[in-house]
Fold this sequence. Notes:
Number of helices of chain A: 18
Strand content of chain A: 5-15%
Shape of chain B: elongated
Oligomer: heterodimer
Strand content of chain B: 25-35%
Low-confidence stretches of chain B: 1-18
Number of helices of chain B: 10
Largest sheet of chain A: 4 strands, mixed
Helix content of chain A: 55-70%
Distance between the termini of chain B: 27 Å
Radius of gyration of chain A: 31 Å
Amino acid sequence: MNKILLVIQREYSTRVRKVSFWLLTILVPILLAALYAIPIYMAMKPQDRAVVLVADESGAFGGLDRDDANRSDSRFVSNEVVEYRYAASLDYARRVMDDDEDVSAILYIRSRASGAIPTDACLYYRTDLPTQQTRYDVDLQLQRILRNRLLQAHGISDDEYALISGTKINLRTEDLETGREAFLGVKTVLGLVLALLIYVAIFMFGSQVMRGVVEEKSSRIVEVVVCSVKPFQLMMGKVIGIALVGLTQFLLWVALTAVALVGIQAGNSDLFGAAQQKHAVTEIATKGSEATAQMSLSGDMADVPQLVEGIAAIDFGAIVPAFLFFFIFGYLLYATLFAAAGAMSDNDTDTQLFSLPLTVPLLLVLLLLPAIVDSPSGGLSVTLSLIPFTSPVAMMLRIPFGVPLWQLWLSMALIVITFPLCTWLAAKIYSKSILRFNLLASWRRRRNNNVADDKMQ
Amino acid sequence: MTNGHHDIYKSYTLNYKLYLAVLIETKNIGKSFGSHCALRDVSVGVREGSVFGLLGPNGAGKTTLIRLINQIILPDKGEILFDGRPMTGDDVRQIGYLPEERGLYKKMKVGEQAVYLARLKGLSRSDATSRLMHWFQKFQIEEWWDRTVDQLSKGMQQKVQFIVTVIHEPRLLIFDEPFSGFDPVNATLLRNEIMELHKKGATVILSTHNMTSVEELCDDIALIDHSQVVLHGNFKEIRESMSTNLYEVSVDTKENESTAADLPSWCHHVSVDGDGNVFRFKLDEGKSANDLVELLLSKCRLLSFHEVLPSMNDIFIATVTGKEVEQ
Lengths: 457, 327
């Protein structure tokens, strides 16, 4: 036992002192903080007003009006994002653009026969693409003017329109017993995040175990070590040591990310005040750029209170322990097998070959991900969340939606039973292969011999 | 091919006298890997305080036997006795093993690594550090303590490896091709260190292809070929038993010019050496040194006379190829 501790200690201390460990530990929180801060910062940053020349030949968008400047509902209106200037024709606009560097684009609306309302408009640019904000504003105003035209033409008043467009029915998915809303969007995202975390952790740290084993084998230190430590102890020491490295890194990520976020907020309290932030988030969401996540979260355009409500409705008391359980056992299950794969290899090519079968079960789960998310309680989802080699990832996809307790316990029991079997098998392969080199070559030789024998007969 | 010649050479396995207690003994050990039989019915004994040569061609099963003794692998058949009782996992602590395929963690610092390996052998951290310091000073490699292994030359690495093999002062030292990778100066240094440990009472098993060092160092030998022990016993006795009745004689040729002429049929003149006054004679079976001396005394003045025993190299080749010893 003491020897396992020594092995664990070596694995841990040599890895934690590596530059690459600290680089990764520091870079990930910076990346996460940047992901959080940059969109908000970009949204809050005052930008130069873009100048767009409107060459409206149809006249439907105010291009032929001469003195009707105050009829804002049928004209483009300059705002803090874009300054609109009307131009008589495309040719004229083109000449203006040649002279004036401030002009960033020309909006050209072609006239249609018989004065019908145009259905096409084109935003011409030269060299520099107009910003997304500009394009978004142009589009918004086009739709607004078009809508006003149509309302006018059909004699619908603004009040009537407001009534029609403002009235909608909200479909909710609720639990019949508790009457609580399901918040499917939030749960799907949460499930995906948890499942991906486990997936990445298994492969990241599993392959570290494998590389460690290959290193010991190819540097030929292994025979020196196994005469004082049993191969099983060496293997388990490595697996546990790297697990501790993984947990350390994980905790440091959480802590450093928190520090980074708090730091950003403290440093820019004016920029990241609560009200500002909400404004920024909604703005981002409505602009549709980084809003895909939020949009899918609550169906209705990122409604922050609803998102918060959705998160609050999730049963973290069950999810966090389950996550930790499947995180640890999923890793242990795969790490021992990765160690066995490493013990059979002498070089990188072998490593890839022997570790390939190990990647299949989890890859399968990722491929079936849409089906699992579509029906978290379906037969496929339940099966995958019970099989020990797929359950760590599959169960995480399901768990935010609520999993029947018996399934959770069964899945846990199966993985707990499989773990020692798996370790036993891995240890057997490990101790048999760790001192043998060129396994592949010797298999090939044996196969060729058999073939030769057959031919002789 | 058959293993027929092994049966012939079984007869050379000598009546093995136990001058000292046997430290480690394998009894009818058998080990197979899949369909390949690595060791068959191997019984060898290593006397405490002796230097034991474990010899054999490549792939004969020497490394397998060493790994079995180190309990890295377990035998399919037979048992291993340590100090007269079945060997347990704890006994491995009393063994220091320098494998033929040896290496170190390349990215780890030398001192740290040596401490780790010594602690795996059961030493405390402080004990390990002070003993290592002593050895590092002895080999004059203290300044390497804080360097990583990949900065060391191969010879340096071998020194570190030797140190961690002997650091826990084991009763039994096993060296598998210890001199490979050393230049002559360092090989001599290593040889002296091994002999010093031997003088202090350590039992040494030496597996090597270097036959000269076997002749110089080993008290007993075992020769393994095709998974079996084909020769086992005291080196001197084996040598004498394999004598080919060859004698080297130097005579004063001034007195009689025709020494080589008219020899009886049982005495064959093999070669002439030196200034024509050193002769080698091979005698037929049944004739002894006395007969030759008698013959020579009648013919010339004898300056020296001794039996030429087969070298370890000759014995090895003869045993493995299944031919008579040729000299």
